[in-house]
Amino acid sequence: MPKPRLNPRSLPYCFLLLFSAVISSKIVAQSVTIPVETQHNAIVFQTDKDQQLGTIYFGKKLSKAQEYTQVSAQYQQGSDFTGVLNSVYTPSGSTNLLEPAITVTHADGNNSLNLVYVNHELKNISNNVTLLNISLKDPVYNFKVTLHYKIYFKEDVIEQWSTINHTEKGNVVLHKYASANLYLKGGNFYLTQYHGDWAKEMQPEESKLSHGIKTLDSKLGTRADLFQPPVFMVSLNKLASEDEGTVLFGSLAYSGNFRTDLELDFQDNLRIISGINNYASPYTLKPNEDFVTPVFLYTLSTKGKGLASRNLHNWARNYKLLDGKGNRLTLLNNWEATYFDFNEQKLAGLLKDTKKLGVELFLLDDGWFANKYPRNGDVAGLGDWQENKTKLPNGISSLVKEAKQNQVKFGIWIEPEMVNPKSELYEKHPEWVVKQPNRAEHYFRNQLILDLTNPKVQDFVYGVVADLFTKNPELAYIKWDCNAVIYNAHSATLKNQSHFYIEYVKGLYKVLERIRTKYPKVPMMLCSGGGGRVDYAALQYFTEFWPSDNTDPLERIFMQWEYSYFYPAIASANHVTDWGKQPIKFRTDVAMMGKLGFDIVVSKLPEQDLKFCQEAIKNYNGLKTIIWKGDQYRLSDPGTSNTASMLYLNEEKTSGVIFNYLVNNRYAANSSLPIPLKGLDPEKQYKIQEINLYPGTSSSLKGTQVFSGDFLNTVGFNPDVNSGRTSVVLKIEAVK
Ligand code: GLA
After folding, report:
1. Same domain, residue pair 650 and 598
2. pLDDT(11) > 90
3. CATH code of 283's domain
4. 525 CA distance to ligand 1 centroid (A)?
5. Do residues 566 and 696 share a domain?
6. What is the Cα–Cα distance from 460 to 471, expressed in whole angstroms?
7. 413 CB under 6 A from ligand 1?
8. pLDDT at 455 over 90
9. 12 pLDDT more than 70
10. From ligand 1's centre to the CA of 255, what distance in Å?
11. Are residues 351 and 458 part of one domain?
12. Do 428 and 487 fall within a single domain?
């Protein structure tokens, strides 16, 4: 048996269990057992008689680690027939009969692969984070796969990916190359998935998984999440609710084509295989070259969706999202206020309005660039990142200066991956454009994609950002947009066109990496014609994302609700606009549930509306730390109730804010029942007070009310939401 290359003394206590199991595996002849344990859960792998490694347990951690090896005997689900149904990484072409994690053609043309356990090692990264590497190899071919598990103990989160490598006498073609291959047992499995389109992001759908394969995927190349994002949930046994049930949240962290197969097999077990979509992408791997897949991340909760989401939020803020625990800037954006129709004078007014409103930054949107083909609409100019001389004769630098005079910061919109055929860039560099040489061009929003597989294009895209900062060192914010999908995928310079989709994303990350090396913390918004590119790989480079161009607050309640399962509020850029029929208070309250911004004509606001906004921003500044960094509790689901209610509570459980909305306009719809709060300390006394009142109105709630945490958690509180009070914000504070 291979000896574990580990030093138990260097590991945290929790992993001692792993050791005892590894050591006790000596007793089980020829078998190696590897438990992967987080604070509450365990995944346990074990080798079979042929040294193939399978998952023998995935669920709540057992108190006696040695009992994991007794789990399998409790299942009587018939014959396996393949020996690899529970494989940690299912190879194809040998005994497998189901969906594989990996498919290859070896250098000699053979299509078979078998993977056996070689060894594993555990590395301590910090007190909380451990990396487990498991080596597998083909006994016949010089072909290796290393599975990596980055284990975030406290957050119950695992990031999993694989490295594929070979030393065969020629190239190997990878036809499929998953990041992860999970194996779950349960009575039934229920999938929560999302679909969408422009302005319709994050529409949830629930279904019971039936036998066969359900695939969630994207083939769009860029703006990859337009029709379907990579995030999903799987409830085990029964549909998990907010606070009950076992549920797995998963997502591929990747900004290109993804594919997740959920296969309910003939034994009624669930196999989840997730990775880069292999669509049109067989990858030719040279000897000694590492193919490293993106990360598939997941968390399991046995206490419902609420806990799973808070685990992901903590993990994201602590480890993934750029500057996840840092500050964010409130802002005024001019997209909907002006669209392409602005000039220096108009912007000077908007800069003053930024200050008057009380936000910290002015964000200049699309339309500021291009001269030969001015960007006065979405039909021309993309690619020509020089200030338009008619609109901005004194350039961006004069605007940055003027912003400073107004004591606000200045940010700018770019879409550097794109090009309009009507542009000087296109005329100069037709070879930089993604298109099929022998086919007609096909446009998405009148534009094409620049070929980021080409290092020269990478330099150009990096240069767009670097130039802006070189000329304007005080530039404080970037909104990075990506409005088109890839049609006619083809690069004029790439040797192997089958690598195009993969190399595009690699090129994008290379550029973002360079930007972050030079400008580590400048806040950047990840936008893609709305929420067309929201994923945890991109969010390593961005401080926030734009959930949708749909800012109708009623729609946003639902959308932000769904996003909030997977992403923390600090990452969600929410703007107050003129979308929707709701009053300014409702619109502002909804936007306050994340990172607040405005995109309205401040000068046209009625006086009382302006006064309301100014006061709301002050309130927000007092509450933002709780909203961004606190624990989020979903109290009343807009999908199943007349009211939506969301609580943000600080870690000490002493301060919080509850946002409540009426989401049903039918006769007498209201908050008829008290809404139980969550997470409060039952021993503490809390005072509840309504804030964000529109000038001249008073709260129907009688003054300040004090209750015990026990009362509020058990009975709840009625925010008195009704057609006369459609939006109610409550501040909750522990009192002595
Ligand atoms: C996309 C974005 C918008 C805006 C426009 C500008 O649609 O989602 O917020 O920036 O582009 O063209």
Report:
1. no
2. no
3. 2.70.98.60
4. 12
5. no
6. 16
7. yes
8. yes
9. no
10. 18
11. yes
12. yes
Q: Of all protein residues, whose CA lies closest to atom 9 belonging to ligand 1?
A: 549
Q: How many A from CA of 548 to the centre of ligand 1?
A: 10
| Residue 547 beta carbon below 6 angstroms from any ligand 1 atom | no
Is the beta carbon of 338 within 6 A of some atom in ligand 1?
no
d(CA 259, CA 325): 31
Ligand 1 in contact with 421 (CB < 6 A)? no
Q: What is the position in ligand 1's atom list of the atom closest to the CA of 378?
A: 12
**Mean pLDDT in residue range 510-518:** 98
The protein residue whose alpha carbon is closest to atom 6 in ligand 1 is: 366
Do 292 and 148 belong to one domain? yes
Q: 124 exposed, middle or buried (CB, 10 Å; 0-12, 13-18, 19+)?
A: middle
Distance 430 CA to ligand 1 centre (A): 25
Q: Which domain holds residue 102?
A: 33-310
Ligand 1 within 6 A of CB of 569: no
Q: Is the CB of 529 under 6 A from ligand 1?
A: yes
pLDDT at position 203:
98
CA-closest residue to ligand 1 atom 1 = 529
- Same domain membership, residue 73 and residue 216: yes
pLDDT of residue 23: 38
Residue 415 beta carbon below 6 angstroms from any ligand 1 atom: no
pLDDT (average), residues 176-191: 98
| 306-331 residue pLDDT tens | 999 999 999 999 999 999 999 999 99
Q: Are 548 and 533 in contact (CB under 8 A)?
A: no
Number of domains within the chain = 3
Cβ(532) – ligand 1 distance below 6 Å: no
Residue whose Cα lies nearest atom 4 of ligand 1: it is: 335
CA distance 109 to 120: 30
Ligand 1 pocket, residue 545 CB under 6 Å: no
Q: Is 726 in the pocket of ligand 1 (CB under 6 A)?
A: no
* Mean pLDDT calculated for residue range 573-587: 97
* Token pair for 416: 């550097």
The answer as to whether 572 is a domain residue is yes
In this prediction, residue 15 carries a pLDDT of 38
Q: Which residue CA neighbors atom 3 of ligand 1 most closely?
A: 529
Rounded to an integer, what distance in angstroms lies between the CA atom of residue 429 and that of residue 452?
13
DSSP state, 641? S
Question: Does residue 698 register a pLDDT over 60?
Answer: yes
How does DSSP classify residue 277? -
The 10s digit of each residue's pLDDT in 625-654 is 999 999 999 999 999 999 999 999 999 999
- Pick the range with the lowest mean pLDDT from 11-15, 282-286, 335-339: 11-15
What's residue 104's pLDDT? 98
Indicate if the pLDDT at residue 347 is higher than 90: yes
Q: What is the token pair recorded at 117?
A: 């356990």
Q: Find out whether the beta carbon of 530 lies less than 6 Å from any atom of ligand 1.
A: yes
Which residues, including other chains, have CB under 8 Å from residue 327's CB and lie 6 or more apart? none
How does pLDDT run across 365-420, given as a tens digit for each residue? 999 999 999 999 999 999 999 999 999 999 999 999 999 999 999 999 999 999 99
How many angstroms is it from 102 CA to the middle of ligand 1?
Answer: 38
Q: What is the dihedral of CA 352, 353, 358, 359, to 10 degrees?
A: -90
Q: Is residue 663 part of a domain?
A: yes
- Helix, strand or coil for residue 501? helix
Expressed in angstroms and rounded, the spacing between residue 529 Cα and the centre of ligand 1 is 5
- Would you state the pLDDT for residue 14? 38
What distance in angstroms lies between residue 481's CA and the mean position of ligand 1's atoms? 7
Using DSSP's 3-state secondary structure scheme, residue 234 falls into strand
335 close to ligand 1 (CB < 6 Angstrom): yes
CB of 599 sitting under 6 A from ligand 1: no
- Clarify whether residues 507 and 591 are in a common domain: yes
What gap in Å lies between CA 369 and CA 128, rounded to an integer?
A: 47
Residue with CA at minimum distance from ligand 1 atom 12: 366
Largest CA distance in the chain: 81
Burial class, 401, CB count within 10 angstroms (exposed 0-12 / middle 13-18 / buried 19+) = middle
Q: Which pLDDT does position 473 carry in this prediction?
A: 97
Give residue 28's pLDDT: 41
Length in residues, the chain: 736
